[in-house]
Design a protein that fits this description.
Elements: H1 7-20, H2 26-42, H3 51-61, H4 65-84, H5 110-121, H6 134-148, H7 153-156, E1 169-172, E2 181-184, H8 187-200, E3 208-209, E4 212-213, H9 216-230, H10 241-257, H11 262-273, H12 278-282, H13 290-293, H14 300-307
Antiparallel strand pairs: 1-2, 3-4
């Protein structure tokens, strides 16, 4: 049997199985479907996924280090599932294991945050962007990351039924590590979402384009466009994800400045942000200015006793 006869069908079966077990499927589908199309288009006579096919795809795609590491992780699970179904597939061995590069978050200055959101709020309607409506979408979308600490993919995957526009409750189901959670918006964030909802009209997705959600590529391009419009200089590589980091660090700074017990409050921040473990939240301490880190409001000895080591996955 040729791969053209079973690769896509096998992936659909795997996704259905994962979904039934309560696991997310979007990453696997987005990551593996292009690989399957490449294999079927370039190796139609192949009867299995071989090392040659994997190497051919990697040479063709030219992934970055972190993206290739994510692809290999998904491919290994997929190939194991194919073998389970009785077909034949090469499971990438340790030669394909890549150590991911830890990303250093961009730390916004106050003036940068103000200038960036002035640019976001100053977006004018354009005939070129009429279908995408960025002047309506980007203000609430980026504020959900900055004001609610959402990961970039999370506002994109919100459905209208996930947001209670009376109480401000948001249900986040499509999450990293499959940690669904409820969060509450502030009153001004809620008011902004209510205004947007009236403008957007009837739809399934809260941020909807062409009967589906907006994608990450469009979101990132809008972020860079607003940064450029603001007149800010890029001393580093600011990304939408860094708005989530800003949410965490600015809450910590506010707690310290107000003399609050950061040790006691950290688990609440961790739960709100959907971290898999407290170490990921603890990492944000190391992004604070030195004057804050050396403050009496942070008991380093107690932190070490509780968390054991300094920091987890900053992109958690």
């Amino acid at each position: 049997m040729m791969i053209t006869e079973y690769l896509e069908e096998s992936l659909m079966k795997m996704l259905k199985y994962r979904e039934a077990a309560g696991y997310a499927t979007v990453t696997y589908k987005v990551t593996l479907m292009p690989f399957i199309s490449f294999c079927c288009g370039n190796y139609p006579d192949a009867d299995s996924i071989s090392r040659e096919l994997v190497d051919g795809w990697l040479d063709y795609k030219g992934y970055s280090i972190n993206t290739q590491a994510a692809f290999i992780a998904c491919l290994r699970q997929y190939c194991r599932y194919i073998n389970f179904l009785g077909y034949k597939a090469y499971v990438p061995d340790e030669d394909y294991t890549i150590t991911r590069v830890s990303y250093q978050p961009y730390m916004f200055m106050d003036c940068e945050i103000h200038a960036l959101f002035d640019s976001i709020d100053g977006y004018k309607a354009s005939t070129n962007n009429k279908k995408y409506r960025p002047e309506q979408v980007v203000p609430p979308m980026f504020r959900l990351m900055y004001c609610c600490g959402m990961r970039p993919a999370e506002p994109l995957h919100l459905k209208c039924t996930d947001i209670n526009l009376d109480t401000g409750d948001i249900y986040i189901g499509e999450t990293k590590h499959h940690k669904e959670r409820h969060i509450i918006m502030s009153s001004d964030m809620l008011e902004l979402c209510q205004t947007y909802n009236q403008l957007a009209g009837k739809r399934t997705w809260f941020f909807e384009y062409n009967n589906g959600p907006y994608d990450r590529k469009w979101m990132t391009s809008q972020f860079h466009h607003c940064w450029k419009r603001s007149g800010l200089v890029r001393n580093g590589n600011p990304r939408p994800y860094d708005l989530r980091h800003a949410f965490a660090t600015r809450n910590l700074i506010r707690w310290v400045d107000n003399g609050l017990d950061v040790v006691s409050l950290l688990p609440y921040l961790s739960t709100y942000m959907g971290h898999a473990e407290l170490n990921s939240t603890f990492y944000y301490i190391h992004l604070l200015p030195e004057r804050i880190r050396s403050s009496a409001g942070i008991d380093w000895k107690q932190f070490s006793a509780i968390y054991g080591k300094e920091g987890g996955d900053i992109e958690d």
